[in-house]
Amino acid sequence: MGYSEQQRSTTWLLRGGLRPTRQRLALAGLLVGDGMDRHVTAESLYAAVGEAGAKVSLATVYNTLRAFCEAGLLNEVVVDGARSYFDTRLDDHPHFYWEDSHTLTDAPAEDLVIAGLPEAPEGMAVSRVDVVIRLKRA
C-alpha cells in the first residue's frame, strides 16, 4: 500500500473512531485506499486480502466489516436475506443487483421517485431506505 493509500485508509478509520490496527488498515486499504467507491461481500474482500498477501481470517473480515458499519464508515445492503454487500458510498442512492453475476452496482438516482413511506411505529424513526433494483436478462 502506497503512502497516500495508507494515509487515506488511516484517515477513514480515524473518522469512524477506530484504531488503525494492521488488519483494519489492510481491509481499509482494499475498501477505500484508491478513493473509489465499491461494493464488496465479506467473501470477495477475504479473497482480495489474500491476493494482497495479508494474513486475515474470514471471521476477522466479517467482524471488521460489522465494526466499519457500526462506526458509520460502510452501509450494509442485504440482498436475498442471505447475501450482504458492503458499500463505501454513504449517501442515499439506489442499487442495481445483477442476478446473473451476483454483483451490486450503483444505479442512477435521477429518475427514482419515492412518493411516500409508511409512518414508523411509535418510538421509532426511519434510519434509511434501501432500493435494490434486480436485473435479469430479458
UniProtKB/TrEMBL annotation:
GO biological process, one term: regulation of secondary metabolite biosynthetic process
Subunit structure, interactors included: Homodimer.
InterPro entries reported in the protein's UniProt record: FUR (IPR002481), WH-like_DNA-bd_sf (IPR036388), WH_DNA-bd_sf (IPR036390)
Name of encoding gene: fur_1
Top-level division of the source organism's lineage: Bacteria
The protein, known as: Ferric uptake regulation protein
Keywords, in A-Z order: Cytoplasm, DNA-binding, Iron, Metal-binding, Repressor, Transcription, Transcription regulation, Zinc
GO molecular function: DNA-binding transcription factor activity; transcription cis-regulatory region binding; zinc ion binding
The family this protein is said to belong to: Belongs to the Fur family.
Chief subcellular location: cytoplasm
Organism: Cypionkella aquatica
A cellular-component GO term for this protein: cytoplasm
UniProt keyword Amino-acid biosynthesis, yes or no: no
Subcellular location: Cytoplasm
